[in-house]
């Protein structure tokens, strides 16, 4: 009923703040794929079959703009991040077609990446994935803590880093046993790597730059990319920059023998902290970056099967991340607490206020009157107003509502004596739309 409206909400507006967060995920269906590669690196062997449940993954790498929109909010709500994440590298000084905000986030360590995932979940009204205890009572917001597999709510509807298995399945785009998402050959027109010939050599490119508008000039390793007609380099699932640009943090600890272990019981979340085969505990990052070349050196790190490793406390210009989330439908009004006794049917939600819920799912809100609500969590809420029809709102947009039929945003505004509905017009003024009456 509401799929069309949800599609329209890829870009979620903070309406008067002149900023936006990109919300564009791709669904990767459940099923099996072959992971790894034979004959190049021992830690990529053996090639093995993996089954994964369906999940969603960001179409693009997390941008600098998205990072700061969430991290600025997070710092005001109990989170901390390393100093390095305050100064990521953006556009080169000679490039003016994009702003710093369009480039992939970098100089972010692994701890900051997963805290940011939690912060985005809370910002968007979703349940978080990472906790500091096995009972999952304390949300991970501060410090550098080696979160264990048992401290993750894998079924949460919130955001998290992909596991190695999720990353490789999504990055392959449906192709089996190939070096890259398009086959076994690479040239400068396909990805941002060392000396690939794009305008950003020795630097990242804007997220999604290789979308048929990329510009490539002659370079030592461009492999004649400048002679190619530029084409859209999204992989078979519609993901951009899975190869090159910045490498991407994954959840897993690195275990050089993990693929060959016959007794591994939970391949999805990788080895436990105490069970890894190397003394120095390191985390995985995948996809290679703009500093990596396509040659044979260092095991061809641009390949889909290559397992990059780094200490979780280190931050690099060439490492960023993208998020995944489980396909979980959460209870409406996530975060509501009972006000009084359950028999009284009054609840409180920090962003929505107090409301009374009747047995037939109509609710009474002191400002909205009698309305009917449906949806998931605090991130996808549809409210039916008897005189206005269905409207969409969420924790991160309230008191703004979206009207699907009119394709317009409305604001519930208090003007001392009364509440009323107003439409924001192009010149920024508010146009009266009508009253919401009690049931």
Describe this protein's structure.
A hairpin with a 3-residue loop joins strand 16 (362-365) and strand 17. The protein has helices spanning 3-8, 64-75, 110-124, 164-172, and strands at residues 11-14, 19-22, 25-28, 31-35, 48-52, 55-58, 159-160, 247-253, 283-286, 308-310, 319-320, 324-326, 337-338, 346-349, 353-357, 362-365, 369-376, 380-385, 389-393, 400-403, 408-415, 418-424, 430-434. It has two domains: 19-326, paralog of FGE (formylglycine-generating enzyme); 337-434, no CATH class. Helix 2 packs across helix 3. The longest helix has 15 residues, at 110-124. It has four helices and 23 strands. It is mainly beta. The model is unreliable at 1-18 (pLDDT under 50).
Task: Describe, in short, the structure shown.
With 439 residues, the chain is mainly beta. The protein has 4 helices and 23 strands.
CATH superfamily assignment of the largest domain?
A: paralog of FGE (formylglycine-generating enzyme)
Strand content: 15-25%
Number of domains: 2
Averaged pLDDT, please?
89
DSSP E strands, number = 23
Topology overview:
Elements: H1 3-8, E1 11-14, E2 19-22, E3 25-28, E4 31-35, E5 48-52, E6 55-58, H2 64-75, H3 110-124, E7 159-160, H4 164-172, E8 247-253, E9 283-286, E10 308-310, E11 319-320, E12 324-326, E13 337-338, E14 346-349, E15 353-357, E16 362-365, E17 369-376, E18 380-385, E19 389-393, E20 400-403, E21 408-415, E22 418-424, E23 430-434
Parallel strand pairs: 8-11
Antiparallel strand pairs: 1-2, 3-6, 4-5, 6-12, 7-12, 8-9, 9-10, 13-14, 14-15, 15-16, 16-17, 17-18, 18-19, 20-21, 21-22, 22-23
Helix pairs in contact: 2-3
């Amino acid at each position: 009923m509401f799929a069309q409206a949800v599609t329209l909400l890829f870009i979620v507006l903070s309406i008067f703040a002149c900023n936006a967060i990109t919300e564009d995920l791709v669904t990767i269906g459940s099923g099996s794929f072959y992971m790894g590669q034979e004959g190049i690196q021992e830690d990529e062997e053996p090639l093995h079959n993996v089954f994964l449940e369906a999940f969603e993954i960001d179409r693009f790498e997390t941008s600098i703009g998205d990072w700061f929109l969430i991290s600025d909010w997070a710092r005001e709500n109990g989170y901390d991040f390393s100093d390095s994440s305050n100064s990521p590298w953006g556009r080169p000084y000679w490039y003016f077609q994009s702003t710093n905000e369009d480039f992939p986030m970098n100089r972010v360590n692994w701890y900051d990446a997963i805290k940011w995932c939690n912060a985005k979940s809370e910002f968007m009204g979703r349940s978080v994935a990472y906790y500091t205890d096995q009972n999952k009572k304390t949300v991970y917001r501060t410090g550098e803590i080696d979160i264990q597999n048992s401290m993750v709510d894998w079924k949460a509807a919130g955001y998290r880093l992909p596991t190695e298995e999720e990353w490789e399945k999504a990055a392959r785009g449906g192709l089996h046993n190939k070096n890259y998402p398009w086959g076994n050959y690479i040239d400068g027109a396909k990805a941002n790597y060392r000396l690939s010939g794009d305008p950003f050599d020795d630097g990242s490119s804007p997220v999604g730059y290789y979308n048929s508008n990329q510009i490539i000039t002659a370079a030592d390793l461009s492999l004649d990319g400048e002679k190619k007609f530029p084409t859209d380099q999204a992989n078979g699932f519609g993901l951009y920059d899975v190869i090159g640009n910045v490498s991407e943090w994954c959840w897993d600890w690195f275990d050089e023998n993990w693929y060959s272990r016959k007794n591994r019981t939970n391949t999805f979340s990788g080895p436990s902290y105490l069970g890894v085969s190397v003394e120095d505990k390191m985390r995985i990052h995948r996809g290679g970056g703009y500093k990596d070349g396509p040659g044979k050196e260092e095991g061809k790190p641009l390949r889909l099967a290559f397992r990059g490793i780094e200490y979780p406390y280190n931050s690099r210009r060439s490492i960023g991340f993208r998020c995944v989330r489980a396909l979980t439908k959460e209870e409406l009004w996530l975060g509501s607490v009972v006000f009084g006794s359950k028999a009284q049917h009054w609840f409180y939600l920090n962003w929505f206020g107090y409301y009374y819920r009747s047995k037939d799912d109509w609710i009474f809100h002191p400002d909205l009157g009698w309305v009917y609500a449906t949806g998931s969590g605090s991130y996808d809420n549809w409210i039916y107003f008897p005189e206005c029809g269905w409207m969409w709102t969420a924790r991160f947009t309230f008191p703004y509502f979206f009207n699907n039929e009119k394709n317009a945003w409305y604001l519930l505004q208090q003007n001392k004596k009364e509440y009323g509905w107003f439409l924001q017009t192009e010149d920024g003024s508010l146009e009266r739309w009508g009253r919401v009456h009690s049931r």
